[in-house]
Amino acid sequence: MSNTVKILCRKVSSVIISSSSQKQQLRSIMATHGVSSAKRASSAAIVAVGQMCSTDDKADNLRQVEELVRRAKAKEAKILFLPECCDFVVRDKSQLLRLAEPIDGQLMAKYRELAKCHQIWLSLGGVHELKASGNGEPNNKTYNAHVLLNDKGELAGVYRKLHLFDVQTEEVNMMESSYVEPGNSLERPFFTPAGRLGLQICYDLRFSETALLLRKLGAQILTYPSAFTYTTGKAHWEILLRARAIETQCFVVAAAQQGWHNPKRQSWGHAMIISPWGKVLADCGEEALCVATAEVDLSMLEKLYKSMPCFEHRRNDIYSLTAFNLKLPNVEDAQDRAFANNTVDKRTIFYESEHCYAFTNLRCVVEGHVLVSTKRVTPRLNGLNCAEVTDLFATVCMIQRMLEKVYGTTSATVTVQDGAQAGQTVPHVHFHVMPRRNGDFGHNDQIYVKLEDHSENMPPRTLQERIDEAEKYRVYLQGSS
């Protein structure tokens, strides 16, 4: 079947389903099978994907966005996904800094008002975020920022593009890194009315690692808003989107730019919504301004996970995939953690990764002495699998860097007491991370004597002291991410 025929089939299907008579038939069929509207509402939501053609005319681009919002709301969508560069596409780089705005700029205020007035979530799939200049240095780059707004017009999340499109082929010559600063962290999935949403942008689509990490972090929907070049889009766009959906068992929503933005730049289009089975649920084809919708039913995910539990079959004893520099988890997800036979109060935990957590110490050898342990209770290092080892060391290194910045130090002692004969008093793998200063001890090795003595001879700190210290680190981590 040709691409043209496939697109026509998808469009005809979309038109048929959207007609009022067919909607009534579908409701009747679902009622016959005992599926009530209330039951569907608990796990299903209509999502809309948008397609447009941005230029360097910001006012016209905003009018396109406004029209897409109206169409999405008319189709009862809970969330509208907009493409990369929905704010503008420049003709030449000299326009970039003049047109770019900070996240709290005037254009974002208009987007927020749109979301609030229409009571719809907006995924702004890539706006040019003007970087704040620091230390008096000139600001000559932007971030490519994926901004998520809730239906009250509030900022729900921001992801800054990690992978920059530096490509030189016969057909394509683009160096995104010459004018865009890469982001420095993957964002945990955000809660939306449609499900837990993992944010990515365009070229990130070619890196399956981040997709798999987002799925491991709980994503149910992945989104790849894009301005794919015509050449690469024709060759790879649909294939990559369907691959990401299949391998992560997530819904994939990919808004797109389409057409000629200027005489030098053309985008592929074909904004899509894809099921976790890899089926294309909606396709905007080559329409210049288009909204397509599909129902995202999260109940199908559990069935898929049970019938094909790929993520349970991953060989964590052989290979691993670890995200570094993740932001703190949501407060509502915090929980007390086991530390051998002890319980660590969640209020003393200031950082968590997939397999590990960092918490403030009951007895400190030096100021800032904290512990990093594994979520799974394991007495010794030789009991950890590959994924836990990788995650543990990455977390320890991140906490060490944080402590040195908090306390203004340039050295640290990082140690693990692996077994009773090595001084381990709690039979659960844990690292001691201690920022070091001049004159801490008479000689350096004395720290190990202090470590051996601290559990018996040092008075314990109060719970409130440890909570207050953890809060200080959480505030720092939130501010530095």
Précis, in short:
The chain has helices at 3-18, 20-32, 37-43, 58-74, 96-99, 106-118, 208-216, 230-248, 299-307, 386-407, 446-457, 463-480, and strands at residues 44-52, 79-82, 121-130, 142-149, 155-160, 166-168, 173-175, 190-192, 195-199, 221-223, 251-254, 256-262, 265-268, 272-274, 280-283, 290-297, 337-339, 342-344, 349-352, 356-360, 370-374, 411-416, 430-436.
Considering the chains and any ligands shown, give keywords for the structure.
alpha+beta, six-stranded mixed sheet, single chain, elongated, eight-stranded mixed sheet, 481 residues, 12 helices
Could you explain the architecture of this structure?
This protein has 481 residues and is of the alpha+beta class. The chain is 33% helix and 24% strand. It contains 12 helices and 23 strands. The strands form 5 sheets. Strands 1, 2, 3, 4, 5, 12, 13 and 16 form an 8-stranded mixed sheet that branches. It has a 6-stranded mixed sheet with strand order 8-9-10-11-14-15. Strands 19-20-21-23-22 form a 5-stranded antiparallel sheet. Strand 4 (142-149) and strand 5 form a beta hairpin. Helix 4 packs parallel to helix 6. The longest helix has 22 residues, at 386-407. 38% of the residues are buried.
Count of runs of 4 or more consecutive helical residues: 12
Largest sheet: 8 strands, mixed
**In percent terms, what proportion of residues is strand?**
15-25%
Tell me the structural class. Answer: alpha+beta
> How many β-strand stretches?
23
Task: Classify the helix fraction into a percent range.
Answer: 25-40%
Shape: elongated
Distance N terminus to C terminus? 47 Å
C-alpha Rg (nearest Å): 25 Å
